[in-house]
From TrEMBL, chain A:
Gene3D superfamilies: 4'-phosphopantetheinyl transferase domain. One of its GO terms (biological process) is enterobactin biosynthetic process. CoA binds at residues 20, 56-57, 76, 116, 120. The lineage of its organism: Bacteria, Bacillati, Actinomycetota, Actinomycetes, Kitasatosporales. Its cofactor is Mg(2+). This is 4'-phosphopantetheinyl transferase EntD. One of its GO terms (cellular component) is enterobactin synthetase complex. Residues 15-66 form the 4'-phosphopantetheinyl transferase N-terminal domain. PANTHER family: ENTEROBACTIN SYNTHASE COMPONENT D (PTHR38096). It holds the Pfam family ACPS.
TrEMBL record, chain B:
It comes from Streptomyces zagrosensis. SUPFAM superfamilies: ACP-like. InterPro entries: ACP-like_sf. It comes from the Bacteria. This is Acyl carrier protein.
């Protein structure tokens, strides 16, 4: 996992370049000889074979995650505070009741990042077809946060800072072997 | 083009200005262009969809097809279809 600051004026071009810089660093750290990440026609970053990866950025920071051998990876960073109205849109009633504080341990921003990261990790599973990120279900099992859509699941890791939520989903060959952790 | 579609497109553009930091993004986006591919963040898309519920008086179905949310054109078409 690597980060890169987005320089002024913090626009789309600067965000794109910072994302590719973070991706190149993450690929280097993972042992990849190939460090470039071209853009697919749909905008998706194309990581080298055998080095699944994902990129996310805000106007100030880009982050990239690479997991050698994984089937897919999804990462998301989210700075936007979610209003209750927006949370009610992208979270189902059960997700709000069980996962948000005070019963749960997450903020709405954490769970938005979680669904986005899971979507990136699951979006190109051929059997799932087209779907929207908020249609993914979030649940907990033995303290682990899990994203599920049409029978496919992926584990999530969440990190929550004062001004930023970060989530990563790693799919290893159609099953998951991890546990989510929320850290401060 | 039906008048309801024209009005819906204009209203969606106004909502986009409100939820995505001014007119600079909206002014550069054609009605048929993918909003996500044009650079609209997912947070802004969700804010737009919530604003549309309030402005047009409906609720998005859980199983809304992704293509309905692709562009200003498709969003306006969805609104117009609901009103027909």
């Amino acid at each position: 996992m690597e980060t890169s600051p987005v320089p002024p004026p913090h626009g789309p071009a600067e965000q794109f370049t910072a994302g590719r810089r973070a991706a190149a660093a993450a690929l280097a750290a993972a042992g990849s000889i190939e460090r470039t990440v071209p853009r697919a026609r749909d905008g998706r970053p194309l990581f080298p074979q055998g080095f699944a990866g994902s990129i996310s950025h805000t106007g100030r920071l880009a982050i990239a995650a690479v997991v050698p051998g994984a089937e897919t990876v999804g990462v998301d960073i989210e700075p936007t505070v979610m209003t209750p109205r927006v949370a009610a849109f992208f979270l189902r009633e059960q997700e709000r009741r069980l996962l948000l504080a005070p019963i749960g341990h997450y903020t709405a921003r954490d769970l938005f990042a979680a669904k986005e990261a899971a979507f990136k990790a699951m979006n190109h599973i051929g059997t799932l077809g087209e779907f929207l990120f908020w249609q993914i279900d979030l649940s907990q099992s033995d303290g682990a946060l899990i994203a599920t859509y049409r029978g496919e699941s992926v584990p999530l890791w969440i990190r929550s800072e004062a001004d930023l939520s970060f989530a990563v989903a790693i799919r290893r060959g159609g099953s998951w072997d991890g546990r989510s952790r929320r850290t401060h | 083009m039906p008048d309801t579609v024209v009005k819906a497109r204009q209203q969606i553009r106004e909502l986009l200005v409100d939820v995505f930091g001014g007119p600079s993004f909206v002014d550069g986006v054609h009605d048929a262009v993918s909003l996500r591919e044009a650079g609209l963040p997912s947070t802004a898309l969700v804010a737009l969809l919530v604003a549309m519920e309030d402005a047009f008086g409906f609720e998005w179905d859980d199983d809304v097809p992704p293509e309905a949310l692709r562009s200003i054109e498709s969003l306006a078409g969805h609104v117009a279809a609901l009103r027909d």
